[in-house]
């Protein structure tokens, strides 16, 4: 009887739609507002660039006397888009980045899971990896040229080293964060090590792995461009460096923008693929 009284006295909760909001309520289009805000931020950046380059602004420590205007860069971009060199440069860079990234993803996840779940693997693998981690990509270039028979393999290796450590460290963090209670519960039901790894540890570490992969993709582009400036014949980094040596200042900015767009787009693809692989995590994501 008391339960019926409580139920009758309790206020009725509004029905909720599939989006989680009360049915019949109106919510302003937040993505449109955010898109307009981001577009405005880009517009302000372009305006500041245009004014600084047009008036040859000299701030003492920073000068814009030789910096091309956005209109000059747009003309150079249109000219490059009509040139067959664009496909060769972009294609070479994409192949190198993808090869190094996939190798780093496989090695980083495997090593990260081992280090995160095994004290023996942590003691054996983590110290040498921590010694190698702070070494910049530029320092690897001479040794990579000596180690590998071709410049292509050396550039893939440099890309691999750049992407490896963000993936590795994030995987270690995710594997260590697997719930001990959940692991103990699954073990009490008779699960072996492989089943625990497959059913508990990897799903728990997946968000961290995706984050590390997205960071590693951006780092791979940074390292690849550095390598291409020194030992490449094709690629966005080589194009940017060649433009500097030939004093084609417009093309320098074009190369920089291409690097930024390709890096941003590839990182977004990694995050999107990770979201598709983790349906349990997408529900809690708020853009």
TrEMBL record:
Subcellular location: Cell membrane
Lineage of source species: Bacteria, Pseudomonadati, Pseudomonadota, Alphaproteobacteria, Hyphomicrobiales
Record family assignment: Belongs to the binding-protein-dependent transport system permease family.
Predominant location category: membrane
GO process terms (BP): alkanesulfonate transmembrane transport
Species of origin: Methylobacterium oxalidis
Membrane protein topology class: Multi-pass membrane protein
Function statement: Probably part of an ABC transporter complex. Probably responsible for the translocation of the substrate across the membrane.
Name of the protein this chain belongs to: ABC transporter permease
DNA repair is among the record's keywords: no
An example Gene Ontology CC term for this record: plasma membrane
């Amino acid at each position: 009887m008391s339960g019926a009284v409580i139920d009758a006295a309790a206020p009725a909760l509004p029905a909720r739609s599939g989006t989680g909001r009360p049915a019949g309520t109106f919510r302003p289009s937040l993505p449109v507002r955010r898109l307009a805000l981001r577009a405005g931020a880009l517009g302000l950046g372009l305006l500041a660039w245009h004014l600084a380059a047009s008036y040859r602004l000299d701030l003492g420590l920073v000068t814009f006397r030789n910096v091309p205007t956005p209109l000059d860069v747009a003309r150079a971009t249109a000219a490059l888009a009509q040139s067959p060199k664009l496909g060769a440069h972009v294609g070479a860079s994409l192949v190198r980045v993808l090869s190094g990234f996939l190798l780093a993803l496989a090695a980083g996840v495997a090593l990260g899971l081992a280090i995160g779940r095994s004290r023996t693997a942590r003691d054996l693998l983590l110290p040498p990896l921590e010694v190698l981690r702070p070494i910049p990509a530029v320092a690897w270039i001479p040794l990579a040229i000596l180690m590998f028979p071709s410049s292509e393999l050396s550039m893939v290796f440099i890309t691999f080293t750049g992407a490896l450590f963000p993936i590795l460290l994030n995987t270690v963090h995710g594997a260590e964060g697997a719930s001990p209670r959940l692991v103990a519960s699954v073990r009490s039901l008779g699960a072996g090590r492989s089943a625990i790894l497959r059913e508990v540890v990897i799903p728990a570490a997946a968000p961290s792995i995706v984050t590390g992969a997205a960071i590693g993709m951006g780092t791979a582009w940074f390292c690849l461009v550095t390598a291409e400036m020194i030992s490449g014949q094709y690629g966005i980094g080589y194009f940017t460096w060649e433009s500097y040596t030939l004093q084609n200042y417009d093309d320098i900015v074009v190369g920089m923008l291409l690097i930024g767009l390709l890096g941003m787009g590839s990182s977004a693809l990694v995050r999107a693929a990770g979201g598709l692989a983790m349906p349990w995590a997408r529900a809690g994501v708020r853009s």
